[in-house]
């Protein structure tokens, strides 16, 4: 999986997708590869439905894993489905209230909805947890 993470960091989504599909072909019941595949697919608007399905499959497989909820939140935000994205972000936060990335996601959702005060509060929490995390 470290190769997949590296490919995604390098924005080489086509290669990461190929690796992930191979992983899922041998073991389709792993949540993380489904969620990572959703990340690869969401960069192409014509594949947003597929990205959503992959992210939802990650949640179904590991509903207690914050990463899968956050990934679904990012996919839904990309699709401008902010109400559902907010629910996913809040679930991720409830599962791991010390992960700055979950608050970063919530802040982005609130910005998309023009909820300036809520966006600011989420951003402040995000930076309190990890002041070096400016993504």
**Could you tell me the strand content as a percent range?**
under 5%
Q: What composes the largest sheet?
A: none
What is the H/E string? HHHHHHHH
Count of DSSP H/I helices: 8
Describe this structure in words.
By secondary structure, the chain is mostly helical. Helices cover 75% and strands 0% of the residues. It contains 8 helices and no strands. The two termini are 22 Å apart. The model has no long low-confidence stretch (mean pLDDT 95).
Essential attributes:
135 residues, mainly alpha, 8 helices
Element layout with pairings:
Blueprint: H1 2-9, H2 13-26, H3 31-41, H4 48-61, H5 66-78, H6 82-95, H7 100-112, H8 116-129
Question: What is this entry, summarized?
Answer:
The protein is mainly α.
